[in-house]
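**Fold in tokens:**
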Amino acid sequence: MSGGIDYGRLMHRAMRGLIQEVLEGVREKGLPGDHHFFITFDTAHPDAELADWLSDRYPGEMTVVMQHWFDDLDVSDEGFAVSLNFGDAPERLYIPYDAIKTFVDPSVEFGLRFESQESEDEDDTPPDDPDGGGDEAPDEPKQRDAEVVSLDRFRK
């Protein structure tokens, strides 16, 4: 085994699986009780699909609410599509799981935050050229930010 265990990537994959499972349950049975979701996502993600006027209005990120009115929820292994109401006009969105920055259900004080939006395919890319292909000196290890998931931010 070379390089070690990438706990951050594994945790992000597990958290995306949790979101998928929750949304599949909502698709099948609807939102139970007072449950509702605030989902913040990267509108510039290459696989995100939203109306031009929405991406113009929210060029970096957008938070959508799934609560009283949503329709045609479609859940896949890569993301989900849903129609939401924007000023009495339904709009269809497709949100890939790896575009999600936060997923919060305030009714039960539950939240997930993705600290970085790195591709899961990183393990397939070759390492940087140690003889100088990048900005770092060859003898300095590449620094990676720690990935911390904090649920305290969402507590009341």
Q: What stands out?
A: The radius of gyration is 18 Å. The CA atoms of residues 43 and 54 lie 9 Å apart. Confidence is low (pLDDT under 50) at residues 117-155. The longest helix spans residues 7-29.
